[in-house]
Design brief:
The chain is mainly alpha-helical. The protein has helices at residues 36-66, 72-99, 108-114, 127-154, 158-182. Helix 1 crosses helix 3 and helix 4 packs antiparallel against helix 5 (158-182).
């Protein structure tokens, strides 16, 4: 009996292997009015932000699941909302890399190699520690995104600059504001 399915037999051809058709870190030639070097640099910077954003998304989901305490419900909802916004950024960043002719980082193991965001403990942290960890991740991304936006603008890559400024930075700043306000020590009101 043959191990290969017959043509037209409806059997999927399983266990396929193929050659890598584009290496990570390279860019294809696209008629975008940007130099090869500008597109390659933009892809490199975008992939760093993309890796960090994927980790931030994961942190938001982890903390959404594990949050505890008196503000559980409110934080549970906010953390999930922020996670969904980060997931939208992941998609936008990856699509920008691809539209520049690059290869977006997508494998979680590769993301872990590229990220600058510190790894959290495997267990459950207290809520202020969770929020502080998210704020630190936001700041890591924001510092990199500000620098990347300025540098890609110098290279004439207005599309990448726009994505970094109007989506990554603005979303990150607003989310950091929401999180930071949860860490404010508000005195109890006594009647």
């Amino acid at each position: 009996m043959s191990t290969q399915p017959t043509v037209g037999g409806g059997q999927p051809w399983l266990h396929q292997n193929g050659e890598v058709i584009q290496e990570f870190g390279t860019v294809k030639l696209f008629p975008l009015g940007l130099s090869h070097d500008a597109r390659r640099y933009s892809c490199q910077r975008l992939n760093r932000v993309l890796a960090d954003t994927q980790i931030l998304y994961g942190l938001y989901k982890k903390h959404h699941w594990l949050v505890r305490g008196a503000t559980f419900y409110q934080l549970h909802l906010v953390l999930d909302k922020h996670a969904e916004e980060q997931l939208a950024l992941v998609d936008a960043l990856a699509e920008r890399v691809q539209s520049l002719g690059g290869v977006a980082v997508g494998d979680p193991r590769h993301v872990a190699e590229l990220t600058s965001v510190k790894r959290p403990p495997n267990g459950v942290e207290e809520v202020p520690a969770m929020l502080s960890r998210l704020l630190e991740a936001h700041e890591t991304i924001l510092i990199d995104a500000h620098d990347a936006a300025a540098r890609v603008a110098e290279l004439g890559d207005d599309g990448t600059n726009d994505l970094l400024v109007s989506q990554v930075i603005r979303t990150g700043e607003q989310q950091a504001w929401f999180l930071a306000e949860h860490l404010v020590d508000t005195p109890l009101v006594r009647a």
